[in-house]
Amino acid sequence: MVKVTIDLPDHLAEQLSDMGDRLPERLALSLQQPPIPARVYRYILDFLASQPTLEEIANFCQTPEMQERLKTLLERDRSGAISAAEKQELDEYERIEHLVILLKAGNLPDVTQA
User: Fold this and answer.
1) Neighbouring residues of 82: CB distance < 8 A, sequence distance ≥ 6
2) Does the model's pTM come out above 0.85?
3) Which residues does 93 contact at the CB level (< 8 Å), separation at least 6?
4) In terms of CB atoms within 10 Å, which of 5, 15, 29, 82 comes out highest?
């Protein structure tokens, strides 16, 4: 086991002290982040929850921010300069794109019939 020493503001040190033996568990949870920002999932879920028409589904696309990030990730992947975390992010964007394609093709009819 590794011992870590850090300087903390008093108010944060007090909060950590109150956690007692749960601190390692909380620290581990805080390090487990989804590969892409939660706002990306929220954007897609909000769209699906709006019970979109077939035309809206056909016209659904990524936000400009998502498109730019995906472009960056693809460029980094092509150049071989992609990190492991970025590769996970790219893989998640590809999974989402696959689901959107299935939705547009009509292969996920239950999603829009909630």
Assistant:
1) 73, 76, 90
2) no
3) 36, 66, 69, 70, 73
4) 82
Q: What does the alpha-carbon distance between residue 46 and residue 48 come to, in Å, rounded to a whole number?
A: 6
And the tokens for 84? 């492991």
Q: 78 near 70, Cβ under 8 Å?
A: no
Q: How far apart are CA 42 and CA 63, in angstroms?
A: 12
CB 69 within 8 A of CB 63: no
| pLDDT tens, per residue, the chain with 114 residues | 888 888 989 988 888 888 888 888 888 887 777 788 889 999 999 999 999 888 898 899 999 999 999 999 999 999 999 999 899 999 999 999 998 898 888 865 554 454
